[in-house]
Design brief:
Shape: globular
Structural class: mainly alpha
Number of helices: 5
Largest sheet: none
Strand content: under 5%
CATH architecture of one domain: Orthogonal Bundle
Order of helices and strands: HHHHH
Oligomer: single chain
CATH class of one domain: Mainly Alpha
Helix content: 40-55%
CATH topology of one domain: 434 Repressor (Amino-terminal Domain)
Radius of gyration: 19 Å
CATH superfamily of one domain: lambda repressor-like DNA-binding domains
Distance between the termini: 57 Å
């Protein structure tokens, strides 16, 4: 049996976990969008209890990509294709774009000092 102190995190992340893992901002943004679309698709699949065969027909895909989708293996799947899947499932997608808070070191996103 382990005690409670064995389960303490060794590193606490504040903010975006993808940034903390070392992904560049554009890559982290794309991964976040993919993850959000995938989560919505998987929730819809669960709620409708689709089989892989039904999804194959609905999404006009062969079985291997459907299996990968259901397992969350979407690294090689484009955001556009995930959006197409969501559309074919009758899911509405919305994209929100807003400014990112300034970096703590005073630099803007062009790499220049914001105070200059």
């Amino acid at each position: 049996m382990t005690n409670a102190t064995d389960n303490k995190p060794t590193h606490v992340v504040t903010g975006n976990v993808l940034d903390a893992l070392g992904f560049a901002t554009p890559e982290a943004s794309a991964l976040k969008v993919k993850a959000e679309i995938l989560a919505a698709i998987l929730e819809h699949v669960r709620s409708k209890a689709y089989t892989q065969a039904q999804l194959s027909d609905l999404l006009d895909e062969h079985q291997p990509p459907i299996s990968n989708l259901l397992r969350g293996r979407v690294a090689s799947v484009s955001i556009e294709k995930l959006l197409r899947y969501a559309d074919r499932m009758g899911l509405e997608t919305q994209i929100a774009v807003s400014p990112i808070a300034a970096k703590e070191n005073g630099e803007d996103f062009s790499g220049q000092n914001a105070a200059a």
